[in-house]
Design goal:
The protein has a single domain, classed as Purple Acid Phosphatase, chain A, domain 2, CATH 3.60.21. The protein has 9 helices and 14 strands. Strands 1, 2, 3, 11, 12, 13 and 14 form a 7-stranded mixed β-sheet that branches. Strands 4-5-6-7-8-10-9 form a 7-stranded mixed β-sheet.
Length: 356
């Protein structure tokens, strides 16, 4: 009888631990590794009913960390819709700012001590509603101590507008077998001169001269692929897209890739992405990619973005990144599994770095 009970327990234990997704992404090459890109989560976070959808995305990252050899999870910012609103208007969100920040931090909890995640701050993460000033609750909810994985990769931070060293401007180092060492630099929204100076000095330092460098910042590209010249936020001082290119990306030849979010429109899916390449001071093309899915369901007050994320597969050749756009939300059900991949040319493509 005891043996029968044990067998039943083992069988049911196996069943409970073997959830099957109808669509399960894999790496194209077993020697690749990946980074996962999460677009602006604000529209998941501002509505209580949507918050579990963003948590589904982060939990999917945690569950697939070994299968996809995930080195890090990147997020393009705008964690919340309003940084400092005590009374929600129940149209543009039904959560107070405190509830939004708590939900954002909770969504990343499942990655703590499992994977490093790198978040740049967005315009909605500052001020009262959006970037009236540099007030920001990000450091309170994402202190360095939150995730033990940062001990292994966090190599530098800069001071924020209040002279405090925080993760608003931070750099993370990853050692790989096929790409050598990679440095990811995360910048605050519309970075101040001090932040850009810190990032350039870091990239130019002998320690990181031979690294491949990725810059993650919130606002840079518009949906038509042009670079923002200026934006109409009250926050000052501030540097927008063109200034980021001129002061940091163009004159720093070991910066290989820029990733941003922020821009989107209520249109087809092409209106939630953009991409361009420009030559830096060394004459090499620098890829610049924007991804922000918050209006993927063609609504500002919808479900938050249909669960879309991007899988960035770093191929063993040390220069090619395969970009694929995937939704764990659609992948979880046989009813919607056929929609789990976005396969248009603007959603599935290769990035080649150090291209002349």
């Amino acid at each position: 009888m005891k043996n029968l009970i044990l067998i039943c327990f083992l069988c049911f234990s196996g069943i409970s631990q073997a959830q099957i997704y109808p669509v399960t992404p894999t790496l194209e090459n077993e020697n690749s590794f990946s980074m996962i890109l999460l677009p602006d989560p604000q529209s998941y976070i501002k509505f209580e009913a949507n918050q579990p959808l963003f948590e589904l995305m982060t939990r999917w990252c945690a569950l697939n960390r070994k299968k996809l050899a995930i080195k890090a999870v990147l997020c393009t910012g705008d964690l919340v819709e309003q940084n400092e609103w005590p009374v929600p208007d129940n149209r543009n969100g039904d959560q107070t700012s405190t509830q939004q920040w708590e939900a954002a931090a909770r969504s990343f909890n499942c990655l703590d001590n499992r994977l490093p995640y790198i978040i740049c701050t967005g315009n909605h993460d500052y001020g009262y509603e959006k970037a009236e000033n540099r007030l920001c609750h990000f450091p309170e909810y994402f202190p360095v101590e939150k995730n033990a994985c940062w001990k292994d990769c966090l190599v530098s931070t800069a001071k924020n507008a209040f002279e405090l060293p925080t993760l608003e401007n931070a750099a993370y180092e990853f050692d790989t077998d096929t790409w050598g060492k990679i440095l990811v630099i995360s910048l605050e929204f519309a970075p101040r001169e001090e932040a850009l100076h810190w990032a350039k000095k870091l990239a130019d330092s002998p320690r990181y001269k031979a690294h491949k460098i990725i810059v993650l910042t919130h606002s840079y590209l518009e949906i038509d692929g042009s670079i923002f010249e200026k934006e109409n936020y009250k926050m000052t001082p501030a540097n927008y897209g063109k200034a980021i290119w001129d002061k940091l990306i163009y004159p720093t030849p070991n910066i290989d890739l820029l990733i941003c979010g922020h821009a989107c429109e209520i249109t087809d899916l092409e209106g939630t992405v953009s991409y361009r390449e420009d030559r830096n001071s060394k004459g090499e093309y620098v890829p610049q990619m924007m991804f922000n899915a918050q209006t993927a369901d063609k609504q500002w007050f919808g479900n938050g973005g249909d669960g879309w994320l991007r899988i960035l597969e770093f191929m063993p050749d040390g220069k090619t990144i395969k970009v694929k756009t995937f939704s764990p939300l659609f992948a979880v059900s046989p009813t919607t599994a056929e929609f789990a991949w976005r396969t248009a040319a603007y959603d599935q493509f290769d990035i080649v770095i150090n291209k002349k």
